[in-house]
Amino acid sequence: MATGTIARKSDHWFKLVDVNGDGRIQKSDLQALGERTLSHFGYDKTSAKGRRLVEAYERAWVVMVEAIDTDKDQEISKEEFRAYMEGNADKQNADALLRPITDAEFAAADVDDDGLLSPSEFAELLRAWGLSGTDAEQGAANIDTNRDGLISSEEYFKACRDFFVVDNLDSRVGKVFGQVK
Ligand SMILES: [Ca+2]
Ligand SMILES: [Ca+2]
Ligand SMILES: [Ca+2]
């Protein structure tokens, strides 16, 4: 059976989020993701941006267990994640899950606090997500659709959401987080 586009994107994302690489997403994976961004940009966990990011991931974990962890073992398996993404019935839920994270990650990457990221600042954020330099630069180029050289938090959030809901690997959003295999 051919693996569908959403399933492939879902597996690609899963691998980025499963920081300890044990094939399941735990609360500690989300904590590690947040900490990686903070150390990448040089913030302390107790700073305003640090606390915001830590809290965003804590809230996201609660939403994830509620919405995705069907067997309630406090771990999200690849199958549970795929089922959620393929069902994708509750778009509001996806928004509730993603928005706090993308906003807090964006704020951490917005070093000069002007509310916008340049493609090179955005590429740094993608590197913090664990992407290679080339993938990060390609992702940044793909997200800046009007080529005005600036990325807003709204554009970042929409790219993340579209990554899951747009059923097309050739679209630019399919490349924001590196080439999906
Ligand atoms: Ca894990
Ligand atoms: Ca589970
Ligand atoms: Ca900025």
TrEMBL record:
SUPFAM superfamilies: EF-hand. The lineage of its organism: Bacteria, Bacillati, Actinomycetota, Actinomycetes, Streptosporangiales. Residues 5-40, 56-91, 106-132 form the EF-hand domain. The keyword Transmembrane helix does not apply. This is EF-hand domain-containing protein. Coiled coil: none annotated. InterPro entries: EF-hand-dom_pair (IPR011992), EF_Hand_1_Ca_BS (IPR018247), EF_hand_dom (IPR002048). It comes from the Bacteria. It comes from Streptosporangium fragile. Keywords: Metal-binding, Repeat. Gene3D superfamilies: EF-hand (1.10.238.10).
